[in-house]
Write the structure tokens for this entry.
Amino acid sequence: MKTILCVEDADTSRDITSLFWQQGGFRVLEAEDGQDALNILHSRHVDLILTDIMMPNLDGWGLYREIRGEKSFNLTPFVF
């Protein structure tokens, strides 16, 4: 089963997005901001990262820069 990381600070949007992908047969991990996402990425494998842009602590662009700066995540698809 493929794993998607859903990064969204709005609970309702995150819940709806996660439910949609789960119904499609994907495992979904959830993060409330970019910093939470980085913590998850350092402990779990993900096949796709879906993220909001405007979030507290570490926004979507900052998350993108951090991820692309790490060799182990170079090929992980990333969608804003």
